[in-house]
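Thread: Sortilin N-terminal domain-containing protein, structure

OP (GT): Posting the sequence first so everyone is looking at the same thing. Length is 315 residues per the record. Can we get the structure tokens written out before standup tomorrow? I want them in the notebook alongside the other entries.
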Amino acid sequence: MGHLKKAALSLLAASTILGACSQEVEEKAMDTEDSSEEEKVEKQQYLQPFEGNLGHVHGLGHMEEGFAFAAHTGIKIYQDGEWKEAVDHPHDYMGFQVREDGFLSSGHPIPSSDLQNPLGLQKGKVSEESLESLAFVGESDFHVMGAGFANESVYVFNEQPNSQLDQGFYRSTDLGATWESIPAEGIEGGVFQMAVHPTNGETVAIATDSGVFLSEDGGKSFEGISETGQAGGLYFSEDELFYGLYTGEATMTSYILGEAGTSAVPLPDLTEDAVMYFTKTEDKMAIYTFNGSAYISDDGGENWEKIVEQGETVS
């Protein structure tokens, strides 16, 4: 019996040691996984060099990594004079909107993806592979969408009815959990683009082929604030709405909210071309044009550097 007892104790001790070892190995593996994920983010390993054609672009914004273009073959980023692409986001994003915690988008996944087509409304980060499905997955592709940078308001023009929404203008104040129809009275022309104020979700602008329209009551009513022309390039700062207009020549305007005063923003030479998308930081501006060119400026538009020409990146 003594021998059996000793043997049992030895086995118990061995199993305890093995258990502790396996737990240690597991903890080390988890630590390695965590550190590799941290290292991936710290070293921006989720980005890789890119050159070539952006194809169609359906959105432009600025995020921590740089100026982000939602291109036909995924998110391309212009960072400190170099082109990168987001390894985990090769999808054809539409209605692309940069937020303080990542981006919102609609569009279509690449054919090899397990994601449903169309994407509906998705939330993501360029540093993470996964997307968070917010609404209408497999049902809708929102080409015209606006979202607040630091609020939960999302506005869409729904082109095709889905399980919840008819055709028309809608807004959500909780990132797509619930939706309400908005009258959008005063809008003229074919709807092309939307933008939402970064902090005040009641303030939204719409660009059409007849001009720029501004609402300060959550999209119930809009007022025309520009000349008649093809509008685009909508971008809100806290105090201004920037917009582009084509009336035979291209212009860019800063409209002071609450005052209705305007000032011109200098543009590069755009012959038979105009601003489609515009975004800015405190010291830089970027535009993407209808003919597939992109420029950046670090002096308020006095000088522009071309970084894309007819869809092709310029190094």
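GT: Both are above now. Quick notes for whoever picks this up: Residues 288 and 294 are 4 Å apart (CA to CA). The longest helix spans residues 2-42.
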